[in-house]
Amino acid sequence: MFDRYQAGEQAILVHLDFPDENAREDLQEFEMLVDSAGIESLSVITGKRNTPHSKFFVGSGKAQEIADEVKLLDANVILFNHSLSPSQEKNIEALCECRVVDRTTLILDIFAQRARTHEGKLQVELAQLRHISTRLIRGWTHLERQKGGIGLRGPGETQLETDRRLLRERMVNIRKRLEKVEKQRQQGRRARERAELPTISLVGYTNAGKSTLFNCITKAKVYAADQLFATLDPTLRRIEVEDVGRAILADTVGFIRHLPHDLVAAFKATLTETREAELLLHVIDIADERRSENIEQVQEVLKEIDAGDVPQLLICNKIDKLEDIEPRIDRDETGLPIRVWLSAQQGIGIELLFVALAERLGKQIVKHRLKIPPQYGKFRGTFYQLNCIADEQYDEQGNCLLKVKLPAREWNRLVKKDEAVIESFIES
């Protein structure tokens, strides 16, 4: 057994090309993952295979090449840009005498570094435990309380069984705590539903610029950096959209190709904000050569979390990195906005995004001419709070004559409170 690596160590990177598209990974993205984890890359070993080697994943010759490179450069961890089986991991460790970490474990480690909230830390730990539970090996036989042979028999459990039991107990404990947090989230969602506030969720490939756009729109100070998985914990902020009123904008974790299933399962509670949103803002790094592949990967993850049917507005971000691209709104044949071209970093085209949001969310707008008697002056203040007054005048009797324009849900909420009074204000 070898010590688990810690961020800041020096690594040998291993990447193989496979003809099967489903097994293929991106080397440039892998190097960004390694950099995001705070690990120094000493060397990159590449190769080609039709199928993974059953024992070493890379083949015996390539495995020996990795072992020689580890000794030559004095590396203390080998990072694979692929998911390894527990036996492959163990065999390579034994040959190279060095800790081996596969792509899934690396992503889990980055998530562990980024988690800030109590819920985020619990979710990452649950994902890590699920992953580790498949990788328990007989590495601590000297601690076992059960052995064969005369004088060595005992009623105790093996260390492997002890590890598994402790893991199961810890996972059960975390799930119970996450259920509590999820109930609190549901209460918040129900409160927003009662207030009829629409939720807009930012989704997209990692490092597409979601947090930068979130900060630009909300003036929040969410951590944003040019690295993968800069955002892990979801953040909610209230925004004002013309003809719609108040809405909730949610910033969520970025997606990546072949996102570990343990992570998707652990973060399902967090991603509920995405699943139950009225509109998804799918942020795309339009300057990325792999943007088409990234869009496909995001759509796959959205299907996996049951959010594939939620309406989307594509946000083509980072237009400042391209030449001769102006901010604009693309529409479908019915005139509905489907794409907005902007730069969140430079603050270009943000006003067009709000125009598109108003059109996508403000489909049901009601307009009324109201005549409010002096004794009901408090309702005038209510309409001012809703920021929906288009015109205001007074007649000779002191009645307040208002022209109001507001979302149907806001109007229905007012009517529900004082139906008879509000209806009496409407002029035919």
UniProtKB/TrEMBL annotation:
The segment(s) forming the Hflx-type G domain are 198-365
Q: Which UniProt keywords apply?
A: Coiled coil, Cytoplasm, GTP-binding, Hydrolase, Magnesium, Metal-binding, Nucleotide-binding
Give GO MF terms, alphabetically: hydrolase activity
Q: Which CDD domains match?
A: HflX (cd01878)
Keyword Membrane present in the record's keywords: the answer is no
Q: What is its main location?
A: cytoplasm
InterPro entries referenced in this protein's UniProt entry, alphabetically: EFG_III/V, G_HFLX_dom, GTP-bd, GTP-bd_M, GTPase_HflX, GTPase_HflX_N, GTPase_HflX_N_sf, P-loop_NTPase
Matching entries from Pfam families are given as: GTP-bdg_M, GTP-bdg_N, MMR_HSR1
Coiled-coil region list: 164-191
Superkingdom is Bacteria
Entry's localization field: Cytoplasm
Q: Which Gene3D superfamilies match?
A: 6.10.250.2860, GTPase HflX, N-terminal domain (3.40.50.11060), P-loop containing nucleotide triphosphate hydrolases (3.40.50.300)
Q: Which NCBIfam families match?
A: GTP_HflX, PRK11058.1
Protein function: GTPase that associates with the 50S ribosomal subunit and may have a role during protein synthesis or ribosome biogenesis.
Spell out the family assignment given in the record's similarity comment. Belongs to the TRAFAC class OBG-HflX-like GTPase superfamily. HflX GTPase family.
Q: How does it assemble?
A: Monomer. Associates with the 50S ribosomal subunit.
Task: Give the protein's recorded name.
Answer: GTPase HflX
